[in-house]
Amino acid sequence: MNNDIQEVLFDQGRIHDAAMRLGKQITQDYAGKKPVVLSVLKGAYLWTADLLREVDLYLDLEFINVSSYHGGVSSTNEITLVTDIRSDIQGRDVLILEDIVDTGQSLLFMKELLAKRGASSIKVATLLDKKDGRKVIIDADYVGFDVRNEFVVGYGLDYKEMYRNLPYVGILKKEVYTD
Over the chain, what is the mean pLDDT? Predict the structure, then answer.
């Protein structure tokens, strides 16, 4: 797998530092509250584990799975709710944990869904923010790293379900995903 990576962007140490930085800020911002933390599957599972180790709060953890890539390297613009949450979020503070905010369409879909269900606040903590990929106007509240408009994998991010287990985020070589 490592041979398929053009460049390592963020290694384990830098990711850990980002988790510590954001975990401290989230702990301060949600002091005295018990937020519902919503981890977006499958990509955010490692980020969720590492970030939540740095958050000193009582919280509820839920998982949601939405899909827009459907196995490719770019969004299909069709958002599908694959796995829904079980908790009632009416009147609750919700913190969405994302691996990457790219087009913003999946995030907008989730925020609108949670707002309709009565969340009192909805914030987003993302490992990666790819602003050049945006198709809708939306921002994350907590950002680990800004990333350029490249196809990245590792640390939960995948290409055709592969590379999620890499301990870093790197740019996938184009010859791997182009004919």
Answer: 94
| pTM of the shown model | 0.92
Q: What is the pLDDT of residue 75?
A: 56
129 flagged as catalytic = no
| Tens digit of each residue's pLDDT (9 = 90 or more) over 150-178 | 999 999 999 999 999 999 999 999 999 88
Q: Residue 177: enclosing H or E segment and its boundaries? A: helix 174-177
Q: Which helix H or strand E contains 131, and what residues bound it?
A: none
CA gap 100, 158 in Å, rounded: 11
When divided into structural domains, the chain yields a total of 1
Q: What 3-state DSSP class applies to 160?
A: coil
Active-site entry in 50, 93, 99, 102: 102
Q: Which domain holds residue 140?
A: 2-177
Dig out the tokens for 29 from the structure.
């911002």
In this structure, what are the phi and psi dihedrals at residue 45, rounded to the nearest 5 degrees?
Answer: -65, -40
